[in-house]
Amino acid sequence: MARTPRDTRTRILDAARLEFADRGFAGAGVDTIARRARVNKAMIYYHFADKQALYRETLSDLFSALTARVRAIDEALPPATRIERFIETAAGFLQQHPELPRIMLRELAEGGTHLDQETLTTMQGLALSGTAIIAQGVADGTFRPVHPVLTYFTVVGPLMMYLGGAPIRHELVRRKLFPAEGLDSESFVRHLQTFVKLGLTAGPDTRATTARRRPTRRTPGGPT
Predict the structure, then answer these.
(1) Which of 86, 90, 162, 211 is the most exposed place for a label (fewest CB within 10 A)?
(2) Are 70 and 129 in contact (CB under 8 A)?
(3) CB atoms within 10 A of CB 63
């Protein structure tokens, strides 16, 4: 069957994810991406202006898809349930796309020098979704009075590090250098959910203080 331009573009992006995850931006080669995608090099430049444009679109596609999933979490759920779902959803996506944490760890090591305004704006969507859940929990007294942005990074950072560091962890276990046998990704996700929930849960004093701070709604026509 004839390949459509969309099929070719998708294969190029799939190959680019693998190459950027394996070698980072600097080490990735357009020739290698072309071979992985089973297209000629000219076809890559037909769809993308240069390697940097391909890299940025690769990240934008991944973060857009991840953000769409976390935004689908039911806003009517209690904040404690929503933050658990946020962790589960993000972890599930990263397990389906293990290239993303590896690319991000490489990008962090290089100081984020390959990210432009548009890509950063796309990445912002995930952060805004996570901080909104935390801020709601703080506002209604479900969570302790924590900083939503710092708490967001406390949640996302370990996910990226644990899932992105799987090859090193497996090697440590294989060489019997670290007692991490049987600790799969699902175990870590459950641990992180419990850890975050216990860390955020407000005590009776916090909930009472939050309730006192809430403005009293006046009934129309009632006493002022």
Answers:
(1) 211
(2) yes
(3) 22
Structure-token pair, residue 126 = 């995930």
User: The domain containing residue 76 runs over which residues?
Assistant: 55-206
Residue 219 lies in a domain: no
166 and 87 within one domain: yes
Residue 133 falls inside a structural domain? yes
- CA dist 33 and 19 (Å) reads 6
| pLDDT tens-digit series, residues 113-169 | 999 999 999 999 999 999 999 999 999 999 999 999 999 999 999 999 999 999 898
Name the nearest CA neighbour of 99 among 34, 39, 28: 28
Cα separation, 95 vs 185, whole angstroms: 8
Position 211 in a domain? no
State the sign of the Cα–Cα–Cα–Cα dihedral 139, 140, 146, 149: negative
pTM of the predicted model as reported, rounded to 2 decimal places: 0.86
Q: Say whether both 37 and 69 belong to one domain.
A: no
The number of helix segments (H) and strand segments (E) in the chain equals 11, 0
Name the residue with tokens 């690769």.
Answer: 58
β-sheet bridge partners, residue 201: 143
